[in-house]
Amino acid sequence: MIHLVAAITFSSLIVLSFKLFDRFKIDVFQAVTVNYLVAVAYGLITSPSVPAPAEIATMSWLPFALANGLFFILVISMFGLSTQRVGIALTSVSSKMSVVWPVLLGFLILGESASGWRLAGIAAALTAFYLTFRKKGTPLFQTKPSWLPLLLFCATGINDSLMKYAESHHMNQHQTTYLLVVFATALLLGVGLLAVRHFKPNRPHYQWRNLLGGIALGIFNWLSTLMMIRAMASFDSSVLFPVFNASIVTIAALMGFFFFGERLKPVNWAGIALAIAAIVLTAG
After folding, report:
1. Would you state the pLDDT for residue 237?
2. Which of 184, 12, 156 is nearest to 75 (CA)?
3. Cα distance between residue 136 and residue 273, in whole Å
4. Exposed end of the chain (fewer CB within 10 Å): N or C?
5. Is the pLDDT confidence value at 143 over 50?
6. Per residue in 186-203, is it b (16+ CB within 10 Å) or e — as a string?
7. How many CA atoms does the CB half-sphere of 157 hold within 13 Å?
8. Which candidate, 232, 218, 100, places its Cα nearest to that of 153?
9. What range defines the domain where residue 44 resides?
10. What's the pTM?
């Protein structure tokens, strides 16, 4: 349980970081690229030992780690683009409702039990995601480019499912090394994309605040993902992901209300209450 609580805490700090990025005009893509560098460095410093590259190349989980690294970059890029094009509400709901992917993986492939209470909790969590981000008078599903949140839904779900499957069948005692490969892959892809942006006519400016934001994000990201992987060893997917996502949605909404003056409608409070109920039902 301690690993799940830690994963929720550090993931909530990531949400808070992105909120502060907007306030302090921090370039998200620059900060995200720095975040992967910091995560790799932090992992190397805190890891007691790391296998040699030749040994890592023989690991059965290597293809999964490389794929996770690719999806890390895809998900963060699509999240940013979707937020700009269709808004934070639909983007957030699409990202969190991707919980159905690892849950189905647990039921259909990993042989996890599908009790009535657990299924009710999953249904409650999905409804809670919608209600928490629903804004009165603003249609959540609009006629803007709906393929963006759809792609985000698929990419996030596939990413979570890949990591859960790798943890169940391949990682063994190599959780830290797996994570190092994931972040190193994301770092290389991020540097490549940053280089492409550099040579465009409207290339971005490099500022110290982007570096500082990336450092904080990298530490939170490493700890959040590591704690999540460790929590995967203790919980079924059908419990872990609904509880985790419902908790993040609830905390994000409450942080917006208490610290950033974001107003919550009665329907949003209903979503938060339903998210708490979903956690109780799913974990029960």
Report:
1. 87
2. 156
3. 18
4. N
5. no
6. bbebbeeebeeeeeeeee
7. 20
8. 100
9. 2-283
10. 0.85
For residues 27, 28, 29, 30, the Cα torsion angle rounded to the nearest 10 degrees is 50
Q: Are 64 and 241 in contact (CB under 8 A)?
A: no
Residue 233 is classified by DSSP as: T
Taking each helix axis from N to C end, the angle separating 266-283 and 237-259, rounded to the nearest 10 degrees, works out to 150
CB atoms within 10 A of CB 284: 11
Work out how many domains the chain is built from and give that number: 1
Q: The tokens of 197 are what?
A: 């942006």
Task: For the beta carbon of residue 66, count every other beta carbon within 10 angstroms.
Answer: 14
What would the two tokens of residue 58 be?
A: 């023989």
Token pair 């059965």 in the structure block, residue = 60
Question: What is the chain's Cα-based Rg?
Answer: 19
Distance of CA 207 to the CA centre of its chain: 26
Say which residue the tokens 């009710």 belong to: 120
Output the pLDDT for position 89: 61
Amino acid at 27: D
Choice among 62-76, 217-231, 250-264 with the minimum mean pLDDT: 250-264
What's the full length of the chain, in residues?
A: 284
pLDDT digits (tens, 9 = 90+) for 87-120: 666 667 777 778 888 888 888 888 887 777 777 8
Query: What sign does the CA torsion over 7, 160, 102, 95 have?
Result: positive
